[in-house]
Amino acid sequence: MIEGSVNPPPGRQKRSLAAQARKLALARWTMRRAGDRRWRDANTLWPLLDRS
What we know:
Layout: H1 3-6, H2 10-51
């Protein structure tokens, strides 16, 4: 194992942490959007299924 990968310079570590947090927030936002859309689709579909 490379020693540098275990203990990267503080600056790079901070930048990677920020990038990771931003990526996580984006993933959470897209998941929430997809979940909302799925929930809305289910709500509009259920009455149609009940009627038939």
